[in-house]
Specification:
By secondary structure, the chain is of the alpha/beta class. It has one domain: Phosphoglycerate mutase-like (Rossmann fold). The chain is built from seven helices and six strands, in the order βααβαβααβααββ. Strands 3-2-4-1-5-6 form a six-stranded mixed sheet, sandwiched between helices.
Length: 217
């Protein structure tokens, strides 16, 4: 299966560098709307047969132009929502707590899944819910699936599950709004990343704390 993990368009909280992970969350900025509108052309070469979004409004708004252009119904799944910030919700990404959020996310990807974000979820829980949606998509038999998801969740899951991307790479490489991580494989055989962060609109705007390069140590 070809798997396209697409980060949502820019939000007001991205501009303000806030950890904004509660459902349903904010909509898109004007730039975010432009990024969403550009997705159908940016992904014109992809034969997308199924489209998934999270329970968060920003993914649904980002996917809407693509769904309309392809005649697809976006499938809403809570499993691909952003990593829950818990007690760190709406704190600045540059704060010590904000940095700890991303360090914890990447520690999960490195295998320390028992860690828990204060007031939030553990790595075991976050990976399990994301895995379940990807397994569902694979079981449905589509050749190419697009999942509009979130910066921390995409980077965490890819670093944990792809054979050729490790935590150091995922932490050092930003994922811009409407950036796409393209993978190939299956839940049983494993995943290989084919490309990272091809973006639909330039300039890409403000990535926010979950999309920026971070120090993990």
């Amino acid at each position: 299966m070809r798997l396209l993990l697409v980060r949502h368009g820019e939000t007001p909280s991205n501009l303000d560098h806030l950890l904004d992970t509660a459902v349903p969350g904010p909509g898109l900025t004007p730039l975010g709307e432009a990024q969403a509108a550009a997705l159908p052309e940016a992904l014109a070469g992809e034969d997308i047969e199924a489209l998934y979004v999270s329970t968060m409004l920003r993914t649904q708004l980002t996917a809407a132009p693509l769904a309309a252009a392809r005649g697809l119904e976006a499938i809403v799944r809570d499993g691909v929502r952003e990593v829950a910030a818990g007690d760190l919700e709406m704190l600045p990404g540059e704060s010590p707590e904000g940095r700890e959020y991303m360090r914890t996310v990447f520690a999960w990807a490195a295998g320390d899944t028992g860690l828990r974000i204060p007031g939030g979820e553990s790595g075991k829980e976050a990976l399990a819910r994301y895995d379940a949606v990807i397994e569902e998509a694979a079981a449905n038999g589509a050749g190419t699936v697009a999942v509009v998801s979130h910066g921390a969740a995409i980077r965490m899951w890819t670093a944990a599950r792809a054979d050729n991307v490790d935590v150091a790479f995922a932490a050092a490489h930003l994922l811009r709004n409407t950036g796409v991580v393209v993978l190939e494989g299956s839940p049983s055989d494993g995943w290989k990343v084919l490309s990272w962060d091809s973006a639909a609109v330039e300039p890409a705007g403000e990535a926010g704390p979950t999309g920026e390069a971070v120090e993990t140590a």
